[in-house]
Design goal:
This protein is α+β, with helices and mostly antiparallel strands. The protein contains 5 helices and 9 strands, in the order βααβαβββββαββα. The strands form 3 sheets. The chain has a 5-stranded mixed sheet, covered by helices on one side. A two-stranded antiparallel sheet has the order 3-6. Helix 1 runs antiparallel to helix 2. The longest helix is centred in the N-terminal third of the chain and has 19 residues, at about 15-35.
Length: about 220
């Protein structure tokens, strides 16, 4: 059984200068895209190793992230409460499968000559899942420390140039027979939104039950 929660965290605000700089950059980007080329519109064929350009929405988020370097402004943090018997090895295997399936989670966003691009990195052979054991603490202290951990994890920045843009940590709250864990997920908003969270949770649950996941569209 899972219970998703969103850790509270402070979100820094953009200054007027930053907003003006962003507006100017987006205006120049739109002007470049609107320039006539004199050639008929076609759908270009992309080489396998060719960098992928960002959409307008992605470019806007990328630029805002650059303005807030070192902050967790665009992090999405979730704490999933898991009750019942749990195999850390099986959970790590399920996360490996999820990250392998979804290229967005292993996409880097480096910049070349000031312009961002997307680069998809190979899937990991094994997902590393750190475990924090809080079972020796008294019940009230366990909950306090777990909430503290969730806030700290969500506040740690993710580097857009160093995928995967997903970070996980498992907190052990109680041992068998009343086993209880909390899975902390932190992901960057550039590759993840509320709808994506639902997909991830469904696939994570299905993979944990040994079900075969359907092919991606």
């Amino acid at each position: 059984m899972s219970d998703p929660r969103s850790p509270d965290r402070d979100r820094p605000q953009r200054t007027a200068a930053q907003s003006s700089l962003l507006s100017d950059r987006l205006r120049r980007t739109r002007e470049r895209r609107a320039e006539p080329t004199g050639r008929p519109a076609t759908i270009p064929r992309r080489r396998v190793d060719e960098p992928i350009p960002l959409s307008s929405a992605q470019e806007r988020l990328w630029f805002l992230d650059r303005l807030q370097r070192g902050s967790a402004l665009f992090n999405i943090g979730r704490a999933l409460r898991l009750r019942g018997s749990l195999s850390v090895r099986d959970l790590a295997r399920s996360l490996t499968l999820i990250v392998s399936r979804h290229e967005a989670l292993r996409t880097a966003f480096p910049a070349a000559a000031g312009a961002p691009r997307q680069e998809i990195v190979p899937a990991p052979s094994r997902w590393l899942l750190p475990v924090v054991d809080l079972t020796r603490l008294e019940a009230p202290d366990r909950e306090t420390e777990a909430a503290d951990l969730a806030r700290r994890e969500a506040a740690r920045p993710l580097d857009l140039e160093r995928p995967p843009l997903l970070r996980t940590r498992l907190v052990r709250l109680a041992a068998v027979p009343d086993a209880e864990h909390e899975l902390l997920l932190t992901v960057h908003h550039l590759v993840f939104d509320g709808w994506s969270l639902g997909v991830l949770l469904r696939e994570l649950g299905a993979a944990g039950r040994g079900e075969e996941l359907p092919p991606l569209p």
